[in-house]
Amino acid sequence: MAQVVEEWYKQMPIITRSYLTAAIVTTIGCSLDIISPYNLYLNPKLVVKQYEVWRLITNFLYFRKMDLDFLFHMFFLARYCKLLEENSFRGRTADFFYMLLFGATVLTGIVLIGGMIPYVSESFAKIIFLSNSLTFMMVYVWSKQNPFIHMSFLGLFTFTAAYLPWVLLGFSVLVGASAWVDLLGMIAGHAYFFLEDVYPRMTGRRPLRTPQFIKAMFAEEAVVVVRSDPNMRFAAPLAEEAAHQD
Asked: Whole-angstrom Cα distance, residue 176 to residue 92?
């Protein structure tokens, strides 16, 4: 059993394996009181005034208590992050990393701006960890790129992948979880999908080009495609070769 888990872990692509490992280690560390969640949560004042910039990253690594909800999110993280990295972003690790960076930036910006808007500022002030939202963003992007895959929810009913985010959102509401967390992930996911897939088809321009310094961080394997030249002409075989073939 241990060997199977080890092989499964080693076969994960680099971004999925790194994020999953960081999330599990951080959450376990907090559960064992080795790490304090108070040093991880998103706090704009501490980031700006105390220069605690690590909070911009660590709030995406902590998944609260190690309960059933934690297991669900680890499953979604391992499954859909892996599916995206191995399929939609195969051979494009830098682009996948940039997608996560874009999503994290959008989510952080929404929370910061929402905290300044009257009537909704209290709701946004309660969102201090965005790990669940980033996971939901990956689920949303995968569902938009694979809309016709048939799925089943707990064996109760079947649906296509296009409705997966809405099914999970409804489930979160039924179990009493905050709908804001999932909605933020859907907003970030839709922003990425529109700018990366829809807008380029409409205008021919791609606004989310991965910066070169991010591409330099990841060693991509070059794929060489050999195309035949239609103007290429082959010499006739020598007389001796032709006789030998006959």
From this structure: 38
Percentages of the chain per state (helix, strand, coil), in multiples of 5: 60, 5, 35
The one-letter code for the residue type at 239 is: A
CA distances from 237 to 70, 232, 234, 245 (A): 69, 16, 9, 10
Task: Give per-residue pLDDT as tens, 41-64.
Answer: 998 889 989 999 999 999 999 987
Q: What is the pLDDT of residue 1?
A: 65
90-143 pLDDT, tens digit each: 989 999 999 999 999 999 999 988 878 887 777 778 888 999 999 999 999 999
Residue in this structure with the two tokens 């591409």, named with its chain if needed: 215
> Residue 13, Cβ neighbours under 10 Å: how many?
16
Whether 96 contacts 86, CB under 8 Å = no
- Name the residue with tokens 């391992």: 78
| Residue 159 neighbours by CB under 8 Å, 6+ apart | 150, 151, 152, 153, 167
Whole-number Å distance between alpha carbons of 94 and 223: 15
Q: What is the pLDDT of residue 220?
A: 60
**Residue 51: in which H helix or E strand, if any?**
none
